[in-house]
Amino acid sequence: MRGQNLQLAFGTEIIYDDTNFYLNDTDKTGVVGVNGAGKTTLFKIILKQLELDGGTISTGNSRIGYLPQVIDFEDKQKTVWDYLYDARPIRQIEKELNEIYEKLTYVTEDEQPPLLNKMGRLQAKLEEFDVYNAENDLLKLIDDMKIDSDLLDMKLADLSGGQKSKIAFAHLLFSKPQILLLDEPTNHLDAVTKGFVTQYLKNYKGSVLIISHDIDFLNEIVNKILFINKVTHKISVYEGNYTTFKKKYAQEQLLKELRITQQEREIKKLSDFVEKARQASRTNHNIKRMGKDREIKLEKALASLEKRDKEYKHVKIRLEPNRVGNKIPLEVINLNFNYENKPKLYDNLSFALNINERFLVVGENGVGKSTLLKLIMGLLKPKSGEIKYGLKTDIAYYAQELELLDENKNILENTLEYDLSDTLRRNILGNFLFQGDSVFKKVSLLSPGEKARIALCKLLLQKANLLILDEPTNHLDPDTQAIIGENFKDYTGTILLVSHNPEFVEQIGITRMLILPEGKIVDYSRELLNYYYILNTDFI
Asked: Which of 207, 234, 468, 525 is the most exposed place for a label (fewest CB within 10 A)?
């Protein structure tokens, strides 16, 4: 893949400024840069969803597969099996071939050659997609990814967030792309699936480009880093993994700072002399002449002065409840629930939260972790059982798929339900990096990371004493994850959490764990956490 003389701007905001890059056909590349640098934009250009103002990105005739951050199936009524199998357009090609066979029975001899040529091309495509082994290939992939056979007859609409990610990934891998574009691919993945995906990508024969905040995942897979610099609007490619890139980049910045410091000293020296020459007597021709010479040198020095990379702001968040809650803020009593025509997720599930505790729900994808939170929030109705809240319990909910945001409203409008002065509202949004006119951006146009920051902002504004959190670190960069982890750790209310992020779980100080589907409650255990979260390579 080659990018040449890339030019792109959105209004006055420059994204790429006459920049170039080159990647080999088998490179595994991490795409990095601060928020807004143009990472996802690069993917959209490669996918021809967005046009450059100038320059080209060439991928030849390679088939491109794309996994977006947010999984949204087009035909949600399709079964999982049909969705997976149709990743290779075998049925469509076979349909076209059958239409040609039918036409050949009645067309004239002169009309046959173009049909025969098309038939040859279609048959070559079938071979390209390995038609005779396709079903076996898919069954092996299903087995390798530990996709439960019960899922295969389910409709896409009925999948959990984790199941969606796993199925979308399997669809992508089965489609036999030559270039893979992965945008935050480990969001929602359980440890087993993440381990398989890691090994698969390491051995993948084609080109892989990955946008990810999961540093360990990047380090395991990539051999190159494509860095988009938001200050210079240039793209640079570094050999090695993310950790190697950080060291090289830090060294570059150190040398750059030394150069800039020297340039600034020279500029000051020239400026002082030019000013001295301007103030000198008109009859002092030597000084005046030297001043003109230094002035020309000063202009050149100023023009060639390098830019320092900006220190980008981080999210500021301080979660505080309005009031102290009850000793038992939430109690679940003999809860039973199942989706229509599906087996029970819970069988008389019971537990109670203590004030100020950190309570983690763990289990494989599809066992009902997110469903439990939706039942607690009243978004779903239990078949039987009771969910009781303390009289002084104030609940705030962070949804895994950010579905509580109103996509048709702008950022500012999404916070108008809270009684705040305009100044305070704008200040709080500014703490979440939404400043100036950016608050008028429509939510539907934002990246998942930006949407996650709005959801966090709304969490803060509710000042609740019980937080129900479903994968709150998805879509967030490592710095922001660390910041909110510290805040949740210091938060004086109660937290009920679902998370696949072990570092975050450790950081906030979990006290007890609910294990689904068993419904067993145990004290927090690092060993048990490792059982659910650490990669296990024995499954492949």
From this structure: 525
Give yes or no for residue 374 having a pLDDT over 50: yes
Half-sphere exposure for 65 (CA within 13 Å, toward CB): 21
CB 174 within 8 A of CB 63: no
The secondary element (H helix, E strand) that includes residue 40 is helix 39-46
Q: Supply φ then ψ for residue 216, to 5 degrees.
A: -60, -40
Cα-based distances in Å from 3 to 160, 281, 342: 38, 56, 50
What phi and psi, each to the nearest 5 degrees, are found at residue 126?
Answer: -60, -40
**Class of domain 330-539 as given by CATH:** alpha beta
pLDDT tens-digit readout, 460-487: 888 899 999 998 888 777 777 877 888 8
Q: Region 389-394: what's the mean pLDDT?
A: 93
506-533 per-position pLDDT tens digit: 888 888 999 888 888 888 877 676 665 5
Alpha carbon 173 to its chain centroid, in Å, reads 19
**Distance, CA of 354 to CA of 356 (rounded, Å):** 6
In terms of C-beta density within 10 A (0-12 exposed, 13-18 middle, 19 or more buried), how is residue 20 classed? middle
pTM across the whole model: 0.62
